[in-house]
């Protein structure tokens, strides 16, 4: 029977492996709420089903759904995808799901962070978020895995690790007043060290422009392998993303990882810039206490929000002139994997992309 442990992964010899390490399976949730997903979430459900089907070619996928969507999700998802009932407020498994940790003896456990919808009553995206808050524990129960309850508000999209002691995050997100206003940067970093078992935390200043998560790192930069990074980029100096990407590039160039290596940084040109259309906003329900979305809003579009599964990388595409180059560059940088483009605009309209809707469960 799984237990909730009062120690920490670091104390017990567990650490978070890199996303590109072998997986047992991928976890997702099913989109439903009509204030996030237009037209009663139908286009988003199709997009999520396409992502699930792409990943399921390479590893098992489990999708958690609210009870009233069970039959619909079961019908729309391929038969090899497991569908389980997990109540949720929205569909971001990266952020409300557990962070899995492993030890060197084949054991896997999970970290259950506190979740407050990206900023709680300060600047959170919806209220309530109580169902999301319980998702991580339910996933761990289903898998029969022990759980660490971390006393820190954190979403999985706000961290990346190389599995060799280095963590990337952004100050814009983890120091934002809506997350852990009573903790200092040093205290937050101490929790990251304890619960991820990393030795070095790199605090990038800011995430992607107009990202409603207060700058999640998973939209900005990711590890391709230890010591090697992909960074979203634009050559347009007048684009507000330019100074953010340049700032990240200069910061990372001056840093070393936990093992003392300097980084090789690959720039991946962003799509667009992309904006919400009037037709897209008209398909959204207006709901009290949730983020209003307006025609003309800039979308935080980035190819970096891709997902590593076993032997592949699933990359969002936007029907944009930059798609082909992004896929080609990633394929060249990841020669041992199939780089697969999957339409990402409908997921982007909800404020994230493929990385945000997936969560890897590592092999023990
Ligand atoms: O960046 C992510 N990990 C998630 C984006 C969540 C957006 C919520 N509307």
Annotated CATH topology: L-arginine/glycine Amidinotransferase, Chain A
Helix content: 25-40%
CATH class: Alpha Beta
Q: Note the beta-strand portion.
A: 15-25%
Topology, please?
Layout: E1 4-5, H1 9-12, E2 23-29, H2 42-56, E3 61-65, H3 70-76, E4 82-85, H4 93-96, E5 99-102, E6 108-114, H5 120-123, H6 130-133, H7 135-143, E7 147-153, E8 160-161, E9 166-170, H8 171-174, H9 185-196, E10 200-204, E11 221-225, E12 228-233, H10 240-253, E13 264-269, H11 278-282, E14 307-309, E15 312-317, H12 323-333, E16 338-343, H13 345-348, E17 359-362
Parallel strand pairs: 1-7, 2-3, 3-4, 6-7, 9-10, 12-13, 15-16
Antiparallel strand pairs: 2-17, 5-6, 8-9, 11-12, 14-15
6-aminohexanamide binds at residues 36, 92, 94-95, 125, 155, 157, 212-213, 216, 218-219, 350-352, 356.
Structure description:
The chain is an alpha/beta fold and 364 residues long. It has one domain: 5-stranded Propeller (L-arginine/glycine Amidinotransferase, Chain A). The chain is 27% helix and 23% strand. The protein has 13 helices and 17 strands. The strands form 5 sheets. It has a 4-stranded mixed sheet, with helices on both faces. β8 (160-161) and β9 form a beta hairpin. It is globular. 49% of the residues are buried. The structure holds 6-aminohexanamide. Residues 36, 92, 94-95, 125, 155, 157, 212-213, 216, 218-219, 350-352, 356 line the site of 6-aminohexanamide.
